[in-house]
Write a structure and sequence with these properties.
Blueprint (H helix, E strand, L loop, with lengths): L1 H10 L1 H33 L4 H16 L2 H11 L9 H26 L3 H9 L4 H31 L11 H11 L3 H31 L1
Helix pairs in contact: 2-5, 2-8, 3-5, 4-5, 5-7, 6-7, 7-9, 8-9
């Protein structure tokens, strides 16, 4: 019976590859979006404008303090009641962007705040504008602190793509649930799902480990 189920699983393996492609697409777009938004929010959060710092702090606290699946439900099921109708795919991307940017914001803010005050004063006395100070002096130094946890956060974001299956996005986890209906051998099916997730996450894990060792030195 196991051999029969395995044969059926191999027959529909291309279906899993389509799910893997959807997961990779969501992950890539989300990582780019989260990084851009997260860096902007992180820089603002580490600044001296108290109103912005507090508003961003409330945003970050709310996102980090609520389950991601609840955020997905709010975007996909509640926003339409307010006139904002989104299909499953853009709703998934929006949810990932909101969640991921909050975590990356904290990583970036922590990295910038780790730079000694003297570096800011030296950059300012050199006649650089605030943007130039950040771009040429502060952020390059902060990246040594930011990079290792940032890459680790990327791995978590890739795994969090599995949550968007609850709104019908046909990514890898959703493919697994659909397949279990046809092949009632859950361990075999979701072992395959786990292996495919591992394939796209493991390179980032290696990069994260390498960066941690390199930055430590």
């Amino acid at each position: 019976m196991i051999a029969f189920y395995f044969g059926r699983l191999m027959e529909i393996f291309p279906f899993f590859l389509k799910g893997l492609w959807m997961t990779s697409k969501i992950a890539f777009i989300s990582l780019v979006t989260c990084t851009l938004i997260g860096f902007v929010l992180g820089i603002l959060r580490s600044g001296n404008i108290m109103v912005l710092k507090r508003l961003i702090g409330v945003y970050v606290s709310f996102v980090r303090g609520t389950p991601f699946v609840v955020q997905v439900f709010i975007i996909f099921f509640i926003l339409p009641e307010w006139g904002v109708q989104l299909e499953a795919f853009p709703a998934a991307l929006l949810a990932m962007a909101i969640m991921g940017s909050a975590f990356i914001c904290e990583i970036v803010a922590g990295g910038i705040n780790s730079i000694p005050k003297g570096q800011w004063e030296a950059a300012s006395s050199s006649g650089l504008t605030l943007v130039q100070q950040l771009r040429l002096v502060i952020v390059p130094q902060a990246m040594k602190v930011i990079l290792p946890p940032l890459v680790g956060q990327y791995v978590l974001l890739i795994k969090d793509t599995s949550v968007v299956s609850v709104i019908g996005v046909m990514e890898l986890t959703r493919v697994g649930w659909v397949t279990v209906v046809r092949i009632p051998e859950g361990l075999m099916v979701f072992s395959l799902v786990g292996v495919l997730y591992f394939m796209i996450s493991y390179p980032l894990i290696l990069v994260s480990n390498y960066l941690e060792q390199k930055m430590a030195v």
